[in-house]
Every structure is written in structure tokens, then in C-alpha cells.
Design brief:
The protein is an alpha/beta fold. Helix content is about 45%, strand content about 15%. The protein folds into 2 domains: about 80 residues, Ribosomal Protein L15, Chain: K, domain 2; about 210 residues, CRISPR-associated endonuclease Cas1, C-terminal domain (Four Helix Bundle (Hemerythrin (Met), subunit A), Up-down Bundle). The longest helix is centred in the middle third of the chain and has 26 residues.
């Protein structure tokens, strides 16, 4: 997919944003970028920046929105043109779409990405991580997705495949790390703690794009509830953008002795967190996230098929 999206993200701290009647100018770290003002339908500011009121006025006057986020991607607020509800058409279409086909693609892409991750890890280590019959079970689940009719069936298969994935990947790590499967907070081992940090970063990047496309982040297809759409969309991306980084660091012994486990939870040392954040930032590809969000927004509007890159 090469279609262009109409939202623009300014992330970090210290950008200076201004505009003329035809151009939006962004000065960031000594680099000046300019965009035709009509091409910016939604400006998303993540972190702390300086924006001239003239830029705000011109964007709102042409019918564009401006959204604000904390540095971690947490939504703070949105400016819309006076008296308008920008994006209402997209959100209404999203809510009125039957979820099955969308959920099916999300479950399919997630399972494919996890199968590939297990197979690639086994090749890197020179060993087969699957126990007898497990690989066949996962491939059968992938084939079964085509014939599952109810949402409950889709969710059951998706959860089963996810549980199996983490249990199989645990075999690539030292048992001393205590990672057996994916657990809920509070975590009792460093690998789950690192995975949660990575997923939080991926969530922050994804929710910015979701809001940029005027989709409702709380209206999922495979899941329901707060942030459900964002979690749906990050599932197929976890293996390449987070898991590969976390498992590689864990296998390399870079966290050995750099964490503590109390009766309540596992505490990662600051040096582990710092060593983890940099490669995660490199692995989280915003352009891939944007392509998936664009595909979804076009599909809910009936403008194309829905497919996910993983």
C-alpha cells in the first residue's frame, strides 16, 4: 500500500510550528519542513512544542483538527472548527460495520506473525522450538479462521494461538528468567515487564495514528472496551516491533542481575529500561502503523479491502 494519509504527527519536544496562508512550516532540531496547508487535515502534537496562533487559526478555518498528546501518546485533547464534529462520519461508519470480517483479518495477521516469529527464532538458535504436534495445531488454527462464524469462536482461537505463542517462545530463554507465559500485571518476571513496556510504547504510537484518522480508539472489532481498537491493531505488530527486541535482549543476558522480584512485582533497573527503549524506538515503524490504520479507515468507509502488514 502506498496511499497517503492526511494526518501529520509532530513528536518530541521543542518544535516551532507556524503558517502562511498556504503553507504549514515546522522547525525541529534545526531542520525546516514545509507542507501545503490544505494537505494537513489533522495535526497531532505529541510532547511539548510551540505553535503560533496563526497556524491554529488557519488550520481550524480550513476545517482541520489539532490533537494534543502527552509524550507517551496519551490523548489530552482536540481542537475542532467551531460548531463542527470532524470525523463523525468515519466513527459512525466504524460503529455500524459488522465486526466479523475485520476481526478475522486481525486474528489471521496476528497468528501468521507469531508463526513466523517462532520459526525464525528456531532457525536463529538452530533448534526446533515446537513440541510434537504444536506447529500443526497452529497451522490448523490458521486454516480454521476462514470458517469460524461467530465472534466468540474467533476470540477463542485468537486467545489460544496467543497463549501457545508465548509458551513456545519461552523455550528460547533461560529458565532462570522465570518467563513461562504472558501474564497480567503485576509481573513477576523481567521478560513480562519488558514486554509490557514495549507494548505500552507501541500502543502510544498507534493511538496517535488512530485518532489522526478520526477512528474511535475504544470501538474495537476483535475486542471491546477502552483502547480496544488500538490493541486490535497492535497485535500483528508485536512480534517484529517489540517481541524480537525483548527476547533478543533477554537471550543475550543483558538483563541478568539487573532486576529484582519482590512479593508484589518485578522491578527493572533503570539501565535495563534505558537499554531497552532505544532499540524499541528503532523497531517501532510508524510508517507501517500508519499504513494499517489507513487501510482500516478506508475499509470502514467502503473505500477498499482491509489488510494488515505484519
Amino acid at each position: 500500500m502506498t496511499s497517503e494519509h492526511s494526518w501529520h504527527v509532530v513528536a518530541g519536544f521543542g518544535a516551532h510550528i507556524k503558517s502562511t496562508g498556504t503553507t504549514l512550516s515546522i522547525l525541529y532540531k534545526g531542520e525546516q519542513k514545509e507542507f501545503p496547508l490544505p494537505s494537513v487535515h489533522h495535526l497531532l502534537l505529541v510532547g511539548g512544542h510551540n505553535i503560533h496562533t496563526s497556524a491554529v487559526t488557519r488550520l481550524l478555518r480550513q476545517g482541520s483538527s489539532i490533537s494534543f498528546f502527552d509524550a507517551d501518546g496519551t490523548p489530552v485533547g482536540m481542537l475542532n472548527p467551531f460548531g463542527s464534529d470532524v470525523g463523525a462520519e468515519v466513527r459512525d461508519a466504524q460503529k455500524n460495520r459488522m465486526p466479523h470480517a475485520f476481526a478475522q483479518e486481525m486474528a489471521r495477521a496476528s497468528l501468521k506473525s507469531r508463526l513466523l516469529a517462532i520459526e525464525r527464532t528456531g532457525e536463529e538458535l538452530g533448534e526446533n522450538l515446537f513440541y510434537e504436534g504444536e506447529q500443526e495445531i497452529l497451522h490448523n488454527l490458521l486454516e480454521d479462521l476462514e470458517y469460524l462464524i461467530t465472534m466468540d469462536e474467533l476470540r477463542r482461537v485468537h486467545k489460544l494461538a496467543g497463549d501457545m505463542y508465548y509458551e513456545i517462545m519461552a523455550r528460547s530463554l533461560s529458565p532462570e528468567l522465570g518467563f513461562r507465559r504472558r501474564t497480567k500485571r503485576p509481573h513477576q518476571d523481567p521478560v513480562n515487564a519488558m514486554l509490557s513496556l514495549g507494548y505500552a510504547m507501541l500502543f502510544g504510537n498507534t493511538i496517535v495514528s488512530v485518532i489522526g484518522a478520526y477512528l474511535d480508539p475504544d470501538t474495537g472489532f476483535l475486542r471491546e472496551g477502552e483502547g480496544s481498537l488500538v490493541v486490535d491493531l497492535i497485535d500483528p505488530l508485536k512480534t517484529t516491533m517489540v517481541d524480537s527486541v525483548v527476547f533478543s535482549i533477554a537471550r543475550a543476558g543483558l538483563i541478568d542481575g539487573r532486576y529484582g522480584v519482590s512479593t508484589k512485582r518485578c522491578h527493572l533497573d533503570e539501565e535495563v529500561i534505558d537499554a531497552l527503549i532505544a532499540p524499541l524506538r528503532d523497531a517501532i515503524k510508524q510508517e507501517v502503523i500508519d499504513e494499517n490504520v489507513l487501510s482500516l479507515s478506508q475499509a470502514v468507509m467502503g473505500e477498499g479491502p482491509f489488510s494488515l502488514i505484519y
